Amino acid sequence: MDKIKVGVLGCGVIANSTYIPGISFIDKAELVAVCDLVPERAHETADRWDVPKTYTDTDAFLADPDVQLVVNLTEIQTHYRTNMAALQAGKHVYTEKTMTVTAEEATNVIDEAQTRGLKLGAAAATMLSPVNILAKELIQSGAIGRLCYVTGRHSHFGAADFDGWTTDPSWFFKPGAGPMLDMGVYALHTYTGIVGPVKKIACMSGISVPVRTVRSGPMAGQEIAVELDDNSQILMDFGDATFGFLEATYCQKAARGPRVSFYGDEGVLTINDRSDPHPISLFRDERGKGGYQEWTEQEIADSANWNLSMGVAHLIDCILDPNKPVVITGEHARHVIELINKSYQAAREGRTVDIETTF
């Protein structure tokens, strides 16, 4: 077997803009089916990408023996049910973030995959990015000395504000979604992938913009009531007096400067916005060694070519080679899911909360 037959579940914006185009460039992938509960969306996607099979019923899609790997691109609130159903149908699963809404659900998905001997890959696949891989190598090699703290942002103004939106964005503002599950999840995967698991968490969180107006698409001009926090500021304790801060909001129209900054006792490393031609900047204070204080830019080949579908390519490699370890594990995703839920708990209760999972 030199190819894996892939079925995409969910034919919305992310499927058509990112995942299906990305899958088409994976040599070891063959896209054989798409499924969406909205018939027009399913058929338009199949026609656009020349996919041989189209489904509008999830059970029928999962019963297709040709589908070996399900790429789950449904709404966050449905991920637990659809991931479990795919595994129970004997399919390998790559799931968009977040894998589930709760850590308990995540454990059930992990256990189901292990029991059935199936591969499970979970977004966000940030630790497959060559930028993050190099950043981790530099920090672990002592490039900035002892890591003291990390700060960053992963925010925008919410899906209702997007131009060119083609579906209903209201679900982003309902329980089970929101900026932490939609946006903060990327940074939390990066932070923990580079620094390690979080021990304790605290948070300030609330609704800052209670009504949003949809800018484009079929709901253009309609107002959406925001039903959960759209502005969360998270403080993390990694242990050994190493801390982290993250802003995860739908309250950011624009931003400048690095996306993530790591501060050590001998220097600073920044992961810059993707528009920056230099993805990593490194500052070293060499004065105590007879040198200078200076910034250097780290060159990374193909750093701009990383995209979300890289997670699918990686999982396919792991399916074809059982000895290849999955980097984007369900256990890592579960830890991040717990961080998100415990952040909300910490904000509600006005205290620091212990984290129970690791990876």
List keywords for this structure.
2 domains; Rossmann fold; 9 helices; alpha/beta; nine-stranded mixed β-sheet; six-stranded parallel β-sheet; Dihydrodipicolinate Reductase, domain 2; 359 residues
Write a structural description.
This protein has 359 residues and is of the alpha/beta class. It has 2 domains: 143 residues, Rossmann fold; 188 residues, Dihydrodipicolinate Reductase, domain 2 (2-Layer Sandwich), CATH 3.30.360. 31% of the residues lie in helices and 25% in strands. The chain contains 9 helices and 17 strands. The strands form 3 sheets. Strands 16-15-14-13-7-12-11-8-17 form a 9-stranded mixed sheet. A 6-stranded parallel sheet has the order 3-2-1-4-5-6, sandwiched between helices. A hairpin with an 8-residue loop joins strand 14 and strand 15.
Q: What do we call the CATH homologous superfamily of the largest domain?
A: Dihydrodipicolinate Reductase, domain 2
Name given to the CATH architecture of the largest domain: 2-Layer Sandwich
- Please state roughly what percent of the residues sit in beta strands, choosing from under 5%, 5-15%, 15-25%, 25-35%, 35-45% or over 45%: 15-25%
- The domain count comes to 2
Structural class: alpha/beta
| Number of extended strands | 17
Gyration radius over CA = 21 Å
Q: Main β-sheet: number of strands, strand sense, barrel status?
A: 9 strands, mixed
Mean pLDDT: 95
CATH class of the largest domain: Alpha Beta
Fraction in helix: 25-40%
Q: Low-confidence stretches at least 5 residues in length (pLDDT < 50)?
A: none
The shape is globular
